Amino acid sequence: xxxxxxxxxxxxxxxxxxxxxxxxxxxxxxxxxxxxxxxxxxxxxxxxxxxxxxxxxxxxxxxxxxxxxxxxxxxxxxxxxxxxxxxxxxxxxxxxxxxxxxxxxxxxxxxxxxxxxxxxxxxxxxxxxxxxxxxxxxxxxxxxxxxxxxxxxxxxxxxxxxxxxxxxxxxxxxxxxxxxxxxxxxxxxxxxxxxxxxxxxxxxxxxxxxxxxxxxxxxxxxxxxxxxxxxxxxxxxxxxxxxxxxxxxxxxxxxxxxxxxxxxxxxxxxxxxxxxxxxxxxxxxxxxxxxxxxxxxxxxxxxxxxxxxxxxxxxxxxxxxxxxxxxxxxxxxxxxxxxxxxxxxxxxxxxxxxxxxxxxxxxxxxxxxxxxxx
Amino acid sequence: xxxxxxxxxxxxxxxxxxxxxxxxxxxxxxxxxxxxxxxxxxxxxxxxxxxxxxxxxxxxxxxxxxxxxxxxxxxxxxxxxxxxxxxxxxxxxxxxxxxxxxxxxxxxxxxxxxxxxxxxxxxxxxxxxxxxxxxxxxxxxxxxxxxxxxxxxxxxxxxxxxxxxxxxxxxxxxxxxxxxxxxxxxxxxxxxxxxxxxxxxxxxxxxxxxxxxxxxxxxxxxxxxxxxxxxxxxxxxxxxxxxxxxxxxxxxxxxxxxxxxxxxxxxxxxxxxxxxxxxxxxxxxxxxxxxxxxxxxxxxxxxxxxxxxxxxxxxxxxxxxxxxxxxxxxxxxxxxxxxxxxxxxxxxxxxxxxxxxxxxxxxxxxxxxxxxxxxxxxxxxxxxxxxxxxxxxxxxxxxxxxxxxxxxxxxxxxxxxxxxxxxxxxxxxxxxxxxxxxxxxxxxxxxxxxxxxxxxxxxxxxxxxxxxxxxxxxxxxxxxxxxxxxxxxxxxxxxxxxxxxxxxxxxxxxxxxxxxxxxxxxxxxxxxxxxxxxxxxxxxx
Lengths: 374, 541
Description:
The complex is a heterodimer. Chain A is α/β, with parallel strands linked by helices. Helices cover 38% and strands 17% of the residues of chain A.
């Protein structure tokens, strides 16, 4: 009630935003502050500009930002056990969302009811399509984990890597590689470059021999690897010249290349797609839940998802947002060619198998950490 | 403690009072001035003192209990708790009691039937996937086994009723009409179904749902199948609500031929057909488990229940414990080596200069840990400042740059720097109290500089070394941010794995077991330290 009142009072100031507001119903019995959890850095600021600021302007809600997404699952579990969940909307990757949903820590969504339809009337479920990988998870962006490499390595004699297997080729491409300190993605790439067909990767990885095979392949470059655990490490190492190639999230490489102008290029081959999006914690009191749902309805509509791509090079999760992706807000460059989903970049992509990793993560992780330590 | 003793003695009767009171009562007891026996009076005063002291420390005690002892104790308890398995699979575990996990044959149909019942409940309560993640800590694959079986059991029997008899069977109203009244004719005709429905309705009400609006669990349909097959006069002559539907279903029940639970489960995921997977459930059926501690010590139980070493490619924790101790000792030692001369300088230079030096010691202490760690990365990495410098002056060739970061060297250098103040400060405060006369006296008696230092000065600083060493050691044994950033693969500590299991893998039981082991190791070392150095010999100032 308070919100609609506020809206009326500031109607004049909101003229440019009126178009946004027309489809958004007023929020009844809603809390007027909310805590949104995300990853921090450039990613959070893209959300701030594309979602939070317009939403606050529209509704008068004050949004508290928390940058705890990398330990969201652990914290949500602890909060639920303590019986005091203080977060309203949480940004997590798909695998974490699946775990939260599995543990009953995230609220199941009714996608068609609780999300906005596309402007042409396509239902939300159809618009998001296959990307709805969990009942609790509202996808926001498609990102990929892929490689970047320096373009000025003298030992490479002008060659440039264009195949994922060049990462394992120390002869033609000597130098340090920066890889993530976990089995996910690394094991798959190793098998792909050991001659396993893309569709067989997980079947092979399920067997002891397959795992040994992946480790054996990784052993060939182990001495040249610097491991990372935070997404910012690879860009930093590439910029310092400490590593000549390395894996990280494509948005990090975009800002390294386009915003900082470093002599680095993308190696899109066998990029691994993943999703990032929202969940609402289970068991919120009614007024906070209403607010969270209201926010989600606004922040995941077609225009908002396309808006986020003005600030960071991640692909919007709705099919209907893709044609609306425009130019970078500050650099003025066209964003479409920098999206992982752009046809030129997505010639050879690898689909990450969430269910398989939910099963084998603990097992393989123990082996991976033991392998890495020795 | 000493202050309490002082106040105590000052409160005790003064000499004059004692003299005046040095009378005895009839039984020969000493009396105080007011006539009460002295012993009683003293005890009373002492008790008052103790209460007052307790009242003074009570807020701190309460704070420590609430914010430290309880949470830590609760966390450590997780290392043995295993409620999720017996709570989620009570019937299955009971059915597995007679089964011999070493026999390498599958448990019989009753176990699968019990698993069906447990899983229907678990799926509805959404605890089956949680159980899956718990079992995954023991072996891979359970997560999808339980997920697939969860989908299987959700409409195991309902499917037939719905598809082959009548769509009405998934209408909540049918059941409300049948059993909504409690003891109606339907409850007599279908006793098991009525009981199953009542149990389910109770659970729904507890969850705050209205049973009249929800489709019942598959268990209700399983009971219905049993009732219909059992037949009986009450059922064949049934004329209560929904009589038509019941009669139709009764006529068709002979056609219903569901697969055995065993076959159905194995069809949903072939891993249910592997006795080893059942052996793990059997092993983990207790409310308390040693499995986390075994895992933390690189051990495991084989299917025969014997404790064996983990295969080498999975053992990591003992190795990490050893490395953590070794690196912490190295860091402590290098802190001592670097800190001792600085502390000596600080305590012997004129106050003006030593104060300036002290600020230099403290300055990094006030800087964020992450900033200091990152600064070391900038300095030490292969393309970093130090390597660049060495290459530019020609000491190193460009291809021979030193690897000083992302290995043990990196961890030792960065952590020594970070922990140095903890060594310098206790050393400094102890050295400050050593009178220079001692050294002069030693020298005047003919000692060389070295003898004077080693025989006179050094022994006096041992309490400071003890305090500094124990501070640095204990702090470094629990460090994880710095090793994570600069340690690469060779320089990470056991705490990194604990942090990983707390915040990423969510295997809190294992994290708690590792943390408990670390605590035990530290306490053991503390005991050894007490025996060698003597904890009374430790001084912070």
